[in-house]
């Protein structure tokens, strides 16, 4: 049975484990980041006509602060399916799904016919500038970071030993920052045998870049930047490994 390493933060890590195991793929979770709340003042919801969300963690952080109710009347523009699902689960009545990455969300906002300012709730570290990408099209976005994804201090020794012993056929990476942290934490223990022996399954080319720069040679990309495509990628790899 093919064994994979899941690096994404909780609670998404265990959700991914369940999906992989449903596909008969053995997996171990080693989250490389944890969500930490930031006490940034939240602007009054009446100042905005819509809410833009580039990660489900922003909605979780908003809920942790007990502030969901105040913003629930706003239509949500979500970057992808996982984030859109989180918004619906949190009780938002109108949710638009960009089904992609930051550029797709920007496109959705530009053509969304929004009559007013957009509040973008984000993490402290973001992959791009949503406000700048839509400003030239007349869409006003205010970005407010309300959480930070803090890197773990080290990988579990059992995970590193498993990688060194060939115990993991593949590792799943959902964000560029997670890939960067993985490379940093592995350090000199990211040996040629690991770089050439472990398939790095990545959400996108951007996510894969730190692994490419670290000379990992076996890298596969999902067809589109969402969890469903990652599961398809993982299943295709597992079948290839098992000769199915």
Comma- or semicolon-separated keywords:
Rossmann fold; 244 residues; alpha/beta; 11 helices; 2 domains; single chain; 40% helix
What structural class do the secondary elements suggest?
alpha/beta
Poorly predicted regions are: none
- The side-by-side strand order for the widest beta sheet comes to 3-8-7-4-5-6
Beta strand count: 11
End-to-end separation in angstroms reads 12 Å
Q: Helix fraction?
A: 40-55%
- How would a crystallographer describe the biggest sheet? 6 strands, mixed
Mean pLDDT: 94
Strand content: 15-25%
Can you write the helix and strand succession as a string? Answer: EHEEEHHEHEHEHEHEHHEHEH
CATH structural class of the largest domain? Alpha Beta
**CATH-derived topology of the largest domain:** Rossmann fold
Dominant shape: elongated
Count of separate structural domains = 2
**Secondary-structure arrangement, i.e. CATH architecture of the largest domain:** 3-Layer(aba) Sandwich
**Count of individual helical segments:** 11
Question: What would your notes on this structure say?
Answer:
With 244 residues, the protein is α/β, with parallel strands linked by helices. It has two domains: 3-32 and 153-242, Rossmann fold; 35-150, Rossmann fold, CATH 3.40.50.10090. 40% of the residues lie in helices and 21% in strands. The protein contains eleven helices and eleven strands. The chain has helices at residues 12-22, 56-64, 68-71, 81-89, 102-110, 130-135, 157-164, 176-186, 192-197, 205-213, 227-242, and strands spanning 3-6, 26-29, 33-37, 50-53, 76-78, 95-97, 118-123, 141-151, 170-173, 199-202, 219-221. It has a six-stranded mixed β-sheet with strand order 3-8-7-4-5-6, sandwiched between helices. The protein has a five-stranded parallel β-sheet with strand order 2-1-9-10-11, sandwiched between helices. The radius of gyration is 19 Å and the shape is elongated. The termini are close together.
């Amino acid at each position: 049975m093919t064994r994979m390493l899941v690096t994404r933060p909780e609670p998404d890590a265990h959700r991914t484990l369940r999906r992989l195991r449903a596909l008969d793929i053995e997996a171990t979770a080693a989250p490389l980041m944890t969500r930490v709340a930031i006490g940034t003042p939240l602007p009054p919801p009446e100042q905005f006509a819509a809410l833009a969300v580039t990660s489900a963690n922003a909605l979780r952080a908003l809920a942790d602060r007990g502030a969901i109710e105040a913003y629930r009347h706003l239509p949500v523009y979500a970057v992808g399916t996982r984030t859109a699902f989180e918004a619906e689960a949190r009780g938002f009545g109108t949710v638009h799904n960009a089904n992609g990455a930051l550029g797709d969300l920007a496109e959705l906002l530009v053509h969304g016919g929004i009559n007013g300012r957009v509040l973008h709730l984000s993490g402290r570290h973001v992959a791009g500038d949503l406000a700048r990408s839509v400003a030239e099209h007349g869409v006003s976005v205010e970005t407010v970071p309300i959480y930070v994804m803090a890197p773990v201090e080290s990988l579990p020794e059992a995970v590193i030993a498993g990688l060194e012993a060939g115990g993991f056929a593949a590792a799943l990476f959902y964000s560029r920052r997670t890939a960067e942290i993985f490379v940093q934490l592995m350090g000199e223990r990211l040996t040629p045998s690991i770089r050439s022996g472990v398939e790095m399954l990545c959400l996108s080319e951007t996510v894969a870049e730190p692994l490419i720069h670290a000379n990992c040679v076996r890298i596969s990309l999902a067809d589109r930047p969402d969890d469903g495509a990652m599961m398809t990628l993982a299943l295709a790899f597992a079948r290839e490994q098992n000769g199915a």
